[in-house]
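Worked Example 4.2. Read the sequence first, then its C-alpha cells.
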Amino acid sequence: MLRAAASVVAAGALLAGLAACSADPLAEQYRAGDNKGFIAGDSRVVEIAEADRADPVDFSGTTETGDAVSSADYAGGVLVVNFWYAACGPCRAEAPLLDEAAASFEGQDVAFLGVNTSDSAEAAAAFADNYGVTYPSLLAAEDGAIKLAFAERTPINATPTTLVLDKQGRVAARIIGQLLDASILETLVRETLEES
C-alpha cells in the first residue's frame, strides 16, 4: 500500500514536471522540429520617460561593408537601432517596414542602424540586398562588445528588437519583437525627435 502511494506521488511529480516544461517556448520549438532557435517578442512597445532613461549607449563596431561606426557618429540626433539576423522570420517580415520608416525621416536628424547578431558580413549584405534595406548594420557576431553595450542599458529579450535612442543617446523606446506597422515606429521617432 505504501509502495502504491509512493508510485502515485512519483507519477504526479513527473506529470507536473512535464507540464512545467511545456510552458517553455524554446523547448516547444525543439519538440516541434521547426528549429527557429529564437523566442519572438510580442511586439510590445515600451516607452521610457525622459527622467527615467539610463545613461547613453556608448558603442562602436564595423558594418557589413567594413565601415567603422560609433555612437559619436549619431550624437545630437535620434537613432533607431534594430537587432536582427538573416534566418529570423520576423526580421524578414519587418525589414520593409523599417526601411519605410527610415525613408519617412529622410532629410531629418534621424538615422537607422541595424545590429546583426549572428551573421557574416556577406550574409548581412545579401539580406540587405534581398529585402531592400538601405541603412547599415553592425556585425555583433564578430564583436560581442556591441551587444553588451546595449544590454548594459536596456534588456534585449527577443529578436528582433528595435530601440529608439534620443538625442543624448539614451534608450527612449523599445519594440520587443516584430514591428507590425511602420507608423508605430514613426510615431515613437517623431515624439523623440520633438523632445528638447
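Now turn to a second chain, presented in exactly the same format:
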Amino acid sequence: MRASNADRERFAQILHNALGEGRITVEELEERLDTVYAAKTLKDLEPVVADLPGVTATPGGAIQPAQTQAVAGPDSRIGGTAGSQMSFAFMSGASRKGSWVVPPQHTSVAFWGGVDIDLRNARFAVKNSTITAVAVMGGIDIVVPDDIVVDVSGIGIMGGFELNDRSERPAPPAGAPVVKINGFAFWGGVTVIRKPRDKPTKQIEE
C-alpha cells in the first residue's frame, strides 16, 4: 500500500518520541527520518521503527503506529514568518536574539568580528532548521535552549567548533524543534552553548 503524508508523519513522531526517551541518537534520528520521508509504501516504513516500542503488527503482518500511544502535538514554537537568513560581521559585531523567527536555513559569517545568536526566545519557521556558521579570524557564539534538539557537526581548522553543554536535561521533549549547526572555524571559533531557557522577555530582534 502506498504511504501517505499522514503515514510518514506518524512514523516520524515515533522516532522523535524514541529520541526523547534516549532510545536513539540524534544521528540515528536524522538517518531514519531521511528514510521515512523518502518512503513510497508502508512496507518501506516498517524497518525504520521495527526495533522501537510504540508500534503494532496488523493481521496482515504490516507494522503500524500503535493507535493507543499518546502522540505529542506540534510544538507551539513552530510557525511564523521566517526572519533574516544571514548574519554577517566584518571587523564588527552582529546579533540575532530575542523574539525572532529562525528560518529553515540561516548562514552566519564572522570575519575579524563576532556574531551572537540566541535561540532561547526564538520561534522556528519549520521544525527542522539549519544554521551554517563560518568564523574566519573571528568568533560565533550560538546559545540554544535545552528543550530543542541540537546537532553540531562543524569543523575547526586551527580553531574550535564545539558544543558546550551546560544543561542536565538528558533529552528534549518529543516533537521539539530540531536545529542542525554546521560550518567551519579557521583561526577562529564557533561555540554552541546548550543551557536551560531563560524566562521569556520582550526583547526584539536586533
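Notes for the reader: The chain has a mean pLDDT of 82. The first strand starts at residue 55 and ends at 57.
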